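Regression check, thymidine-5'-diphosphate case 210:
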Amino acid sequence: MGARGVFITIEGADGCGKSTQAALLEARLVACGLEVVRLREPGGTAISEKVRALLLDPANAEMSPECELLLYEASRAQLTRQVIEPALARGAVVLCDRYYDSTYAYQAGGRGLDETLVRQSNVLGSCGRVPDRTLVLDLDPATAFARATSGGADRMEAEGLAFQRRVRAAYLRLAAEEPARVRVVDASGEKDEVLGRLLAACADLWDLRG
Ligand code: TYD
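Current build output:
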C-alpha cells in the first residue's frame, strides 16, 4: 500500500442504482486485498447523520435553497476531516456514494442556485479535497425516477422528474468539463455488466498507488 489512498466518488440522479453498485465495487476491491472505506453523503459521521436527517425530512418543506446548500456542505466538511482524510492518509480506498458533484448537480443544476457560489461552497465543504475519479451512473431519467420513488419520496425526490432531468444535465456538463476526473457510465443492463463498466472506468487509478 502506498502512503496515499485513492478517492473515488459515485454519482448520479436518484434511482440510478448507485448504492447497489457502490456495494458491488467495494466487494470487488476488498477481494483484491484493498482496504476500502465506503461512505455515503450526506452522512458518515454522527454529526453528518444528524444533518442528513434534517435535509431529507419531508417535514422540512420550508428549507431555503441557501440553507440546504450549507447543510450539505456542513455534513461534507465533517466527513472529510473526520473520516476521508485519515483514511486516505493511511492508504485506503475511499468509495463515497455522492460528494460535491452532487451539490453542483442538485443545488446548481436542480435548484438553480448560482453556479459560482455553489462551486465556491464546494471548495469549503470538501476542505479542498478533489476525488481522483468520479463515476457518474447514467440512466434514462424517467426510469430512474420511477425506481427511486416506488417506495415513497424524500424531500429531494419530491421535487419531481423535471428536477431530476436538470440534475442529469448538470452531471453531463461536468463530465464534458472535466473528462479526466468525471466519467459517465451507462447504468442500464445487468448489475454485473454495469460493475464491469465501472471497473473499466477506474482501472488506470491503481497506478496512483505507491
Ligand atoms: P439518498 O437517500 O442518500 O439518495 P441516493 O441513494 O440517491 O443517494 O438521499 C440523498 C439526496 O440528497 C439525494 O436526493 C441527492 C441529494 N443531495 C443533494 O441535493 N446535494 C448534495 O450535495 C448531496 C450529497 C445529496
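Comparison notes: DSSP finds eight helices and five strands in the chain. Helices lie at 18-31, 46-56, 65-89, 100-110, 115-125, 141-148, 161-177, 191-202. No diff flagged against the previous build.
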